[in-house]
Amino acid sequence: MLCFPSVICTCPLMIELDTGFIIRKLEWLSCDGTTAKPDDFIGCQCFRIIDELDSPCPECPVIQSWDDLKPVERFINDDTGKIWSVVSFPLRQNGETTGAILFTRDVTLEKRTELFEKDTEIYKKLFNFPDVGKVVIDPVNRRIIAFNDESARITGFPREHILQVDLGQVINDYLPEDFEELANEIYTKGSASREITIIAGEKKGQKVLAQMYLTEHDSNPLIFCILTDITETKRISDALIESETHYRSLVENSPDIIIEIDVSGNIIYSNRTLPGVIPVSGNVTNFLDYFPKDKHGLVRRALQKSLVRKKNTHFEIEIESGDESRWWSIRVLPLIENNLVRSFILVATDITFNKIAEDTLKKSEEKYRFLTEHMQDAVFMMDMNWNHLYISPAIQKIRGFTPDEIMVLPIEDSLPTRSLENAMKLRDYELHRLASDPDSVPKVYCFEQEENCKDGSTVWTEVRAWLVLDENRNPSYIMGITRDISERREAQEKLRQSEENYRLILDNLPMPVYIHSDNIIQFVNKQVLERMSLTSDEEMTGRNIYEFVHPDYHEIIKNNLLNMEDWPQNRIGNYNYQVIRSDGSIMDITTMTIRTFFEGKKANVSIVIDAKVLD
After folding, report:
1. Dihedrals φ, ψ of 182, to 5°?
2. How far, in Å, CA of 196 to CA of 236, rounded?
3. Which of 169, 391, 600, 602 is the most buried (most CB within 10 A)?
4. With contact defined as beta carbons under 8 Å apart, do 522 and 610 qualify?
5. pTM of this prediction?
6. Cα separation of 573 and 560, whole Å?
7. DSSP label at residue 53
């Protein structure tokens, strides 16, 4: 006997029955996933192979379609967890029922997504909030039942595939092995967070912060997950540790607090103190002095773990100062020298907002406003004529104006002329785009602009804004988030000036100097061009180094570059090989190569200390 769940439900099909439920005809609508032949089922009664019964079940869609004289749909679950739609169409001739036609199709994605779409207004609003990745997991059936577009952008995971396959397959294909350990922590604590690295797909190597919260829907457990792309933050943190001199200006202006301590906890360096935190002792010399004694054990365990394993670790801690309580996520990065931990770099990120969000998700719609009011970024709503409908209190920290003052401030006094002109052009462009394509949805636009402050100065901000449509798809109002980026722009400018000075020095050195990273030439100075009989750096930069190395030395260069991959910064090595000049002549050169950083990534700086054109 053939079982319907294991054979028929492998792909969509059409079945023709007579009035005795005998299968007269069967056709696969898609042959994916099955090797069975239609002839295997001809002459069988459908209920014997579909439900393995001796007679039709009471909910039989065929009988119901004959009684109602109209199509009837029934849903069944197969033994792989999929949900199938079975639709019966009655066949009639000369007023008499002559049989039925059954159509089946896979509706797993539709039915599982339907669960989340029927959720409360608070979940709907949170799930539609832009620029944040959100995932809903059904831990009982081990399925992802909701996966928004931002989650797909952050992770690179194909959305349709993710919603159809088992959770275990998702973890096996894309995530580190220890990801599933989060489940135990979530069930124990009600929430958990983890920094993960995507191991496959188009976003392989992407760093993502996953914050998970246990909740319920219709008495069924669900896991609500917020995804944040932290790739850039991690890259900046690593660069700060690798090259303190080169990136010191960036460290000083980092939104995170960066502290270096020795293995005893004594503070060696700090870009600033923890905001609002009063040290336990008057003169702070030890990192533990920032915390009450009941928190010392937590801090010591994290440092000891990093010391023993010589690997990065992480802990979260709540610090109370007066009436204020703030949560900090602290990453511990050991600095290793001669296989010994010399000191630790501690990168403290204020995650108070995330903790507030955790509480807000569990509370009513009214509590959601509390979350907005306590964001460090300013949330605003404006009508289509640029009149403010709402502005969060964070605007006062950014621009000096109170929310009440902003509400009555004319737009001409709020923005400099250039910023206002750009904002109007962007609004008009979006209105035209939506009017030209009635099926399109509003886009989120991210741009930088200057805004006027109360003291007469201006501040640079990053704005994410989008149009909100009413039920008739007419533009209703503009919603957005404003972030102060003045410190970031200052740090970027300092870094740009530093790199320009670096290039100027190298370009005017009396000896040939070239820089290459990942086998690609990034920079050559004038002396290199002269030795190679070239006139422009464009003839070398962006090209593979092997294009200029004599073929006899390709294998030698390859081995040298592989060895340098494990070199620490500033290590020096001398190498001799031959290059081919633009006129075809061969030049024997000796280089002194230094392992360093260039434009934010590892690179090799080679200085030619001897060069001779061979006869």
Report:
1. -60, -30
2. 17
3. 391
4. no
5. 0.32
6. 10
7. -
